[in-house]
Design goal:
The protein is of the alpha/beta class and 305 residues long. It folds into 2 domains: 141 residues, Aspartate/ornithine carbamoyltransferase (Rossmann fold, 3-Layer(aba) Sandwich), CATH 3.40.50.1370; 147 residues, Aspartate/ornithine carbamoyltransferase (Rossmann fold, 3-Layer(aba) Sandwich), CATH 3.40.50.1370. It is built from 11 helices and 9 strands. It has a 5-stranded parallel sheet, with helices on one face. It has a 4-stranded parallel sheet with strand order 2-1-3-4, with helices on both faces. Helix 4 links the parallel strand 3 and strand 4. Helix 1 packs across helix 5, helix 1 crosses helix 11 and helix 5 packs across helix 6. The mean pLDDT is 91.
Length: 305
């Protein structure tokens, strides 16, 4: 494994499979009465979150604590960052504190890559702007493999606000490495520039793609990142791109429904679909802890230099 996890696209197939296989071994830990391993005892993991987060921050905290690491949670609000401190100065402070691993979420694309040049510890990208979210892609792949038994040749459809989605980009890159076939479905206004260079297919018609889909992943419309009107109305968007019971019926019998969360129920996904037996949404959250344990274990579990 490399020292840092900054991009899903930087993982080789062997590295990605190693993370998924390690997560599979660690999954049994959740069934034990005491859900802890001593692997990272004496190591310090800092959660450095410049953007609000519930699932990812708590997931990384739980993962580190289950491996017996000491965890420091840093929020930009109420810290020196709110007084104008730069990312580099924050990094130097963490370095002085002896952080072995830094989990960073930042609104600026590329911030984790900059941080990795300033600290000696391992840096894990927990989301940078609309760029990437590699551990989300790993937990999604882990969930797919557990349900469908394979990733190679799997037909994955990602639907919605691809333009603002770091999850979509990381999933496309990782699934391509793992030999799955990905199709992006969105209105033209919600697809990024140069999407044709991504290793995936693109469609504007959800109904034509669903019958040939093994996994459908719905994305939230990220209104907070929008500074213009990308579609006429929410109602019109939902009419064309919401996954409801009628559309779910078009899927093959063993297909699953995914969502990285948080959901806008009724906008991109109907409540009856989100709560159906085909939905893996709650399971994805649980798998997030297991996969992030695997990442921390592989990056920080070796002997100290």
């Amino acid at each position: 494994m490399k020292r840092d996890l900054l991009s899903a696209g930087e993982l080789s197939r062997d590295e990605a499979v190693l993370i998924l296989d390690t997560a599979e071994e660690l999954a049994g830990l959740t069934e034990r009465p005491i859900k802890k391993l001593p692997t990272l005892r004496g190591r310090t993991v800092v959660n450095l979150f410049f953007e609000d987060s519930t699932r990812t921050r708590i997931s990384f905290e739980a993962a580190a604590k289950r491996l017996s690491a000491d965890v420091l949670n840093f929020s930009a609000k109420g810290s020196s960052v709110s007084k104008g401190e730069s990312l580099k100065d924050t990094a130097l402070t963490l370095e002085a504190m002896g952080a072995d691993g830094v989990v960073i979420r930042h609104s600026a694309s590329g911030a984790p890559h900059r941080l990795a040049t300033w600290v000696r510890g391992s840096v894990i990208n927990a989301g940078d702007g609309a760029h990437e979210h590699p551990t989300q892609a790993l937990l999604d792949a882990f969930t797919m493999r557990r349900h469908l038994g394979r990733l190679e040749g799997l037909r994955v459809t990602i639907v919605g606000d691809v333009l603002h989605s770091r999850v979509a980009r990381s999933n496309v890159l990782l699934l391509s490495t793992l030999a799955a076939e990905t199709t992006l479905v969105a209105p033209p206004t919600l697809l990024p520039v140069a999407v044709e260079t991504w290793p995936c297919a693109v469609s504007y018609d959800l109904d034509s793609v669903l019958p040939k889909t093994d996994v459908v992943m719905m994305l939230r419309v990220q209104a907070e990142r929008m500074n213009a009107s990308y579609f006429p109305t929410v109602r019109e968007y939902s009419r064309r791109y919401r996954l409801d019971a009628a559309r779910m019926a078009q899927l093959p019998d063993d297909a699953i429904v995914m969502h990285p969360g948080p959901m806008n129920r009724g906008v991109e996904i109907a409540a009856e679909v989100a709560d159906s037996a085909r939905s893996t949404i709650v399971e994805q959250v649980a798998n997030g802890v297991t996969v992030r344990m695997a990442v921390l274990y592989l990056l920080l579990g070796g002997a100290k230099a």
